[in-house]
Amino acid sequence: MELTIDESILKAYGLTRETINIQQIGSGLINGTYLLTNIANGKKFVLQYLNKVVFTNPEAIANNIDAVAQFLKQNHPDYLFPAPVASVTGHSMYLQAGKHWRLMPFVDGTVALDTLSTPKQAFEAAKQFGKLSRLLNRFDSSKLEPTIAGFHDLALRFTQFKDALNAASNENKEKAAKEIETALALEHLLSQYLQFKSKADFPDRVMHHDTKISNALLDQESFEGVCVIDLDTLMPGKFISDLGDMMRTYLCEFSENETDLSKITIRIAYFSAMIDGYLSEMGSILTDTEKELILFSGKYMIYMQALRFLTDFLNGSIYYPTTYAEQNLDRAKNQFKLLEELFANEEQLQHLIDVSLKKK
Ligand code: GN1
Ligand code: MG
C-alpha cells in the first residue's frame, strides 16, 4: 500500500499536507485506508482509495451510497450514516491517476475492533447491522446497483471454484486435495441455497455485505454500538449475507488467518448475544422463510468464504493478498474447520435461535 498521498487529493478536499497528519489504518484486504488528523484542531477524517480490480464500477458505489444517504436523511434524520463528504467541487469521489478516493468523517469516541472480547460487543455490533437493515426495510433495494456482480451468489462462487479446479496445477491440487474433497462434499449447501433463493418470502433487501466486527463502530468506553462503516458493498442481497458473515467472524476467538485449527471453535455465548442483538432490530421484520434460515446463514457464508479462499489458492492467489505462499489454502482450512464446528453445535445453536425468536 502506498504511503505517499498526492497533494492534489488533499487539495480536492480543501486540505494541505502542512496542516494534517497522515497515518495508515485499517485491516481490510481490499482498499487502502488512511487517517487524516488536522494538526490545528484535531479534527479527523478517513481517506480511502478503492481497489479498482475489485470495484470496477466506482460510480455505482457512489450512487448507491448517495441514494441510501438521502433516504435515511429524510426518513431517519438522527441516524448516523458516515457517507463520504463532498469535495470542494461537490463530488463524493476524487479521481487521481486512475484511483478513486473518498473522504469520510471519522466518528469521534469510537473504536473499530479487530476481534471481539465480550458477548456484549457481539450483541452491539449485530444490533447495528440489524438496525441498518431495519431502517432500510422500506427502501426499494432494486434502486441500487450491484457494486460487485454476483458477490454473494453461492452458485457463481461454486462455478468459479470448479473453473479454478479445472485450470489448477497438479501441485496445487495435491496440496489442497482434502479441502477440494470437502468443498465438493458440501455441495448440498448450494442446492439448499438455490431451493430457497426463488421463494416468494425470501426478499431482496439492502445488505451491507461485509459485517465483520471492524466495520461496526462501538463507543470506545461503553462498547455500545454507534454506527456501521465500509459502505462499498451496500447493494441488494439476502439477509443471510449479513447475519451469516457475523457468524463467520464473531463466533471464533481467532480470525480466518489462524493456522492452529484446534483453536477454531465456536463461542456459544457470543452466538446467543449476536442473535439477540440482530433480532432486537430485525425480529419483527424477517419473514417466516428468513427465520427458518437463520442458522443456514452461517453455513452459507462460511462455506462461500472457504470456497473463495480455496479458489484463490488454486488460481495462484490473485485476489486475496497473502504474506506466505499457502496462506489462502490455510484460510480455506480454517473456514472449513469453522463450518465443521457450526455443524457439530447445530442443535444447541438452533435452540438458542428458537429461544431468541420467542422473545420477540
Ligand atoms: C474482503 O477487505 P475486506 O476485509 O473488507 C472481501 C470480503 C471477505 C473478506 C475476507 C470486496 O473484505 O468479501 O469476506 O475479505 N471483500 C471483497 O477477509 O472481496
Ligand atoms: Mg470491506
Automatic annotation (TrEMBL):
A Pfam family hit: APH
InterPro entries: Aminoglycoside_PTrfase, Kinase-like_dom_sf, Prot_kinase_dom, Pseudomonas-type_ThrB
Matches recorded under Gene3D superfamilies: 3.90.1200.10
Domain of life, per lineage: Bacteria
Annotated ranges, domain Protein kinase: 19-360
Name used for this protein in its record: Phosphotransferase enzyme family protein
Species, as recorded: Pedobacter helvus
